[in-house]
Amino acid sequence: MPLASAQAQSSEASPAPLESITSLDVPRYMGTWYEVAKYPNWFQKRCIANTSATYAMQANGMLQVVNRCQKEDGSITDALGEAKQVGDANSPKLKVRFAPAWLSFLPFVWGNYWVIDLDPQYQLAAVSEPSRKYLWILSRTQTVEPKAYEALLQRLKEKGFNLDAIEISKQTTAKPLTQ
Question: For the whole model, what pTM was predicted?
Fold first, then answer.
């Protein structure tokens, strides 16, 4: 195999390190985001529809995270977590945990949460982490303009994400799942 061909295959196998967006206005990011699509993962296996994440600033500077979804029996389940920014006040890199607070001193209970794509209106976002193992596409509404979604998918492909692995999330209700 020619050297140039081997180098091309090598670069396709391992994309460049993932980069986040340059700056995140955290107060503007707060509120409810609906899951539009994701890479399937083990901790959301019981979620079949209507998945959302609601972020709220806490007095101590941390962010409260409430992930909510509908299970197969129609019931709604919540996962309460906490997030903290890594770096300065505009950092798009966060650490999030859903483990009990008393375990928060253990580094491995905190997962990376990087905002890797965000439109200027803060209406459509993509979140992942350095290894690209996890991916979520989030929207402020339960439906997304097809052109905006396709453009986001193209940017994700350019960032080294496998578009074939993306699973579209189901929305079966027009009313928000927030309280």
Answer: 0.86
